[in-house]
Amino acid sequence: MLASQPAEALQPHFQAAPTPHDDELDSVLERARRNAREAGLPYAGGVPPSDAWALFSAGAAVLVDVRTNEERKFVGHVPGSVHVAWATGTGMTRNPRFVKELEAKVGKNAVVLLLCRSGKRSAAAAEAAAKSGFSAVFNVLEGFEGELDADNRRGGLDGWRFRGLPWVQD
Predict the structure, then answer these.
(1) Can you tell me the distance from the alpha carbon of 164 to that of 127, in angstroms, rounded to the nearest whole number?
(2) Which of 18, 42, 59, 122 is most buried by a 10 A CB count?
(3) Mean pLDDT of 93-114
(4) 132, 84 contact by CB (below 8 A)
(5) Using an 8 Å Cβ cutoff, are 90 and 101 in contact?
């Protein structure tokens, strides 16, 4: 910590959004479930980053980051999120204990929002969790960094950070 700055000055500053009402949060989840049924998804559905933040910040859901430790450390992460890696290392070796670790950290009855880099790994993780008995597991659409643009770069089209939602970097 820099001695010349108070601790508060080093903390990230986020503009607080109005707290959504329970019925608004319920409608977000019901809309995601309906869309998932229509699309034939094997898990509860997908939610956009802003809805995921509303659910998480209201305490209506647990946000689980399924990226690697390295991604969280060097790219950033959502403060207060739980970490259970779907895959590990640069070779992205699938974590065979993912579902057991997820259950140990959040329980099968929690409303769970899974977040990865682009929304693809978290969709696979949501499918695995649903097949193991998680009834309210959702994928955070767009992921933390978003899709690749025409120059093969992330962060300029969509994603958690692009949407200006809270995140920190170690």
Answers:
(1) 28
(2) 122
(3) 96
(4) no
(5) no
**Pick from 57, 59, 58, 31: which is nearest to 138 by CA?**
31
Q: Which two tokens stand for residue 8?
A: 């508060």
> At which residue do the structure tokens 């597991």 appear?
137
DSSP label of 20: P
Tokens in use for 122?
Answer: 């978290």
Q: Tally the residues of the chain.
A: 170
Burial class (CB in 10 A: 0-12, 13-18, 19+), 113: buried
CA distance linking residue 124 with residue 67, whole number of Å:
12
What is the pLDDT confidence band of residue 89, given thresholds at 50, 70 and 90?
A: confident
Q: 3-state DSSP call for residue 46?
A: strand
List, in sequence order, the alpha helices (H) in the chain: 7-10, 22-39, 49-57, 69-75, 98-106, 120-131
Confidence band of 20 (pLDDT split at 50, 70, 90): low
Q: For residue 25, report the phi and psi dihedrals to the nearest 5 degrees.
A: -65, -40
H helices of 61-119, in order, are: 69-75, 98-106
Give tens-digit pLDDT for 63-74.
999 999 999 999
Side chain identity at residue 132, one-letter code: S
Q: Which residue has the higher pLDDT, 2 or 169?
A: 169
